[in-house]
Specification:
By secondary structure, the protein is α/β, with parallel strands linked by helices. The chain has helices at about 5-10, 15-25, 70-85, 110-115, 185-190, 195-210, 220-230; strands at about 50-60, 90-95, 120-125, 130, 140, 145, 155-160, 160-165, 165-170, 175-180, 180-185.
């Protein structure tokens, strides 16, 4: 598990900056490990969510094959999984309904409230969500769509590998996400990210400061790029 202070520090950066930092500290992740399609962010002003993935797969276009007491027990085991260490958790749900992804919303007022109470920091899903005005305050969310019905939504499985808009996630993976999308942070690289972010900020500041000066021209940009190369 990552130190709580480091998790808090990672949450001070936006997800694009985290992705940039990973290009420095884990260059093998340059083309993998993050979402590559847009997700709906109904609460864009919330801070980034950082936590450990609890992976789930759902379906909504047909009834659950598990019924009665067995279905209730399945749901209880799911909640036990969501509440288990490590924490904080981020629910990562893949909708398995193929071309009907988002047909039924697993997440709404009830699930957002329950999951927040169980210590969940947020949810990322390629499926749909609903009950936006009644959503648990402060619970971050990225979703594939917003829809009115839960249809026949049910758990298919949990704790196994899922894929959300190109991002492969395994249970326990460290996730960083905000309005831009989400990225998996390799735990071995996590401690190196703050320093890499600081380096990036200092390098970008040279270009940004120069570009904001009156009379900015390409010659000034050439000088700024040279100064940028001197920053380590």
């Amino acid at each position: 598990m990552i130190d709580a202070a480091l998790l808090k520090q990672l949450a001070t950066f936006d997800t694009p900056t985290i992705c940039n930092a990973l290009e420095i500290v884990a260059p093998e992740r340059w083309l993998t490990g993050y979402t590559v399609k847009p997700l709906v962010c109904p609460f864009p002003d919330l801070p980034p969510m950082v936590g450990y993935a609890k992976t789930v797969a759902i379906r909504a276009t047909h009834p659950n094959e598990v019924t009665g007491a067995a279905a209730r027990e399945q749901r209880i085991k799911y909640y036990e999984y969501m509440a288990s260490a490590p924490a904080p958790s981020i629910a990562v749900l893949q909708d398995l309904d193929g071309h009907d992804v988002g047909f039924g919303a697993f997440w709404g007022e009830v699930q957002s409230t329950v999951h927040k109470a169980l210590g969940c920091a947020g949810v990322i899903t390629d499926g749909s969500i609903r009950d936006i005005p009644q959503w648990a305050p402060g619970l971050a969310v990225l979703a594939g769509s917003i829809a009115p019905s839960h249809a026949r939504v049910h758990l298919a499985e949990f704790g196994k590998q899922v894929r959300i808009h190109g991002m492969v996630v395994r249970s326990g993976d460290l996730i960083h996400a905000d309005r831009h999308g989400a990225v998996v942070i390799p735990e071995a690289a996590a401690a190196k990210i703050p320093a890499a972010c600081d380096l990036l900020v200092r390098k970008e500041a040279v270009i940004l400061d120069m570009a904001k000066k009156p009379g900015f021209h390409v010659g000034m940009l050439r000088d700024a790029l040279a100064k940028q190369d001197e920053i380590h």
